[in-house]
Amino acid sequence: MRKYLTLFTTFFKIGLFTFGGGLAMIPFIEKEAVSKHKWIDEEEMISIIAIAESTPGPIAVNSATYIGNKVGGLLGSFFATLGVILPSFTIILLLTLVLEQFMANNFVKYAFLGIRASVTILILNAALKLFKKVKKSVFVFITLIVSFVIAFFFTSVSTIYLILGGLLIGIIYYSIEHRLTKKEVEE
Fold this sequence. Notes:
Layout: H1 2-17, H2 22-36, H3 42-54, H4 59-104, H5 106-133, H6 138-153, H7 159-186
Helix pairs in contact: 1-2, 1-4, 2-4, 2-5, 3-4, 6-7
């Protein structure tokens, strides 16, 4: 029962103190799940992010569900997922009751402007940490640059298309490299 409570409180804390949603939560999920509790390792964290980003639903919910399942099975998934969504659900429910008066307040407007700026840095930091862990090659740099250009200049392109494009390019690259290596060995 203790592991379920730990899963719930850990992901509740992540959900409560992380503004900006999914990508902004990555550093906090990594700190808790990898560094503090050691539920997963860094390699698995990268895989979770890739899977959570490419499957339907918020990245935090998908990550919590996966980690919860690994730690405590189906009940672990339930408590981790409940923990991560409960703070947002409660805050949104309360905000809808006073939304009009709340957003008219200049103090609140500027507070959220500051939060948005901080969240941008958190997302950039998470991206840099992920990039440091990726095996470096010309192929990776080209894929990164092409993905960045598409995402930056064609903002209407869905993230899933970028991920599927990277998947397809990776398969093509592997196939070509594998054939060339096989040819060299035969000669």
